[in-house]
Amino acid sequence: MSHEPFVARAFGAALHGIDAVLVEVQAAHALGVPRSAIVGQAEADVREARERLKVALQSAGLWPRESGEHPVILNLAPAGFRKSGAGLDLPMALAVAALAQPALAGPLSGLLSYAEIGLDGRLRPARGTLSAAFAGQRRGLAGILVPPEAAREAAEIAGIEVLAVRTLGDAVRAARGERGALAPWPPRARPPAGDDADLSEVKGQHLARRALEIAAAGGHNILLVGPPGAGKTMLARRLPTVLPPLSHEEALEVTRIHSAAGLVPPGAGLLERRPFRAPHHSVSVAGLVGGGSPPRPGEVSLATHGVLFLDELPEFPRAALEALRQPLEDGRVAVVRARGSAQFPARFLLAAAMNPCPCGWYETGGKGCRCGETAVERYRARISGPLYDRIDLHVAVPPVRPSELARATPGEPSAPVRERIEAARAAQLARAGETGAAWNAHLRSRALERSIGAGREARAALEEAMERMGLSARAHDRVLRVARTIADLAGCAEIARTHVGEATSYRMLDRAPRPA
Fold first, then answer.
1. Per-residue model confidence as pLDDT tens digits over 380-417
2. Which domains does the chain have, with CATH numbers?
3. Distance CA 498, CA 501 (A)
4. Is 14 helix (H, G, I), strand (E, B) or coil?
5. Model-level pTM?
6. Eight-class DSSP state of 161
């Protein structure tokens, strides 16, 4: 006679970065064990669910009767990584329920479940539903049990049936095939209302508007330098209005990141707007680039496929600014901790703003500046040379006088600017097979030399500028990339001397005195 315990199984998922790893939850009665336990490298938030789930199962009449004598052991497999997140509540509860109702074991083998459970058995959405559905689809599971508020998010993954249930009891009945237990999906959540910003609201500032167009067309990072009230923030906040709409693949990645951070509104599906993130300058390193235990995405990841705006750039902690160097260069950020590591996407367009000096009025021709050259250099030195080099466009934003504002006509709207940008990006996509980069800002050095299309006069102009301005090798490549984007906006196959001249004009801080 076999004395092997009956092991019930259910499938869930645990977040690792923005990805979800499939977890097999195994439940069995244990002889000689003093109390129920959750094992398999479960983090504290998972272990503390033990008593909560027991109450929920008892209220639903699903707690195994013999558990009073023989505690229940839950094992989360595989044991090779730490597991956290409230999404494991539902699969753990269903595995225990299968001990009371062994007929559940068969149906649960083809389902993934992902939800938080309250004491009364009601289900709530958990962070990372989209990634969990993707993990289930890759494993070949037929369906996923989620609360109604998370159904549209899970449904963005093709090939897996979404079963919306409100309570633990409904989840058990739905797993058994009782379709009457399924809840209707709530109406699609409306996206957050925009501020209806448009580039036409910017009067004057023709140079800054042109630089903004170049930045959006080639994915170039931009730094706006000007006194208070010159319109730096206004310009940056209109940058998303001229960017092309998100592709389906981009929208999926944006939604996965925001879902992992718990920022997808209940009832929403795919996020369709390009992100615009503007953290305060008091943000920590972990808040900016990601961190914590388990690691969560930071602002650089939340801005993926959108804009990260850093106002008052020199006021940010030096450590936070230096941490930007890897994501600006690689488009990814690695968060390494003693208890684990995670990779997060971080392909964003950086828009930054700063005053020209501590008081803000250096060389503006308006209010008097009392800072002095030493104070100006010290202020600008808060940003390291390598970080300056990673910003393609340094643009002066001079003050606009009230009389000029009164006379100025509205600027060009965002729509025609966006059309020119889409045409320039189409030219870059046409070259993507040859270069391996969708946007000019992401061209690697070898692809840059092979496909940039710079004539002899253009290269001679760039050599002159390097000698005159003392550009670094990295700044040299960035000028070439910006010149390529300017040529794309003009519809030119080859970079001309004028394109190089305009590109070098956007390196104002390379010309300014700055300590090494």
1. 999 998 898 889 999 999 887 776 666 667 788 999 99
2. 8-181 (3.30.230.10), 199-511 (3.40.50.300)
3. 5
4. strand
5. 0.88
6. E
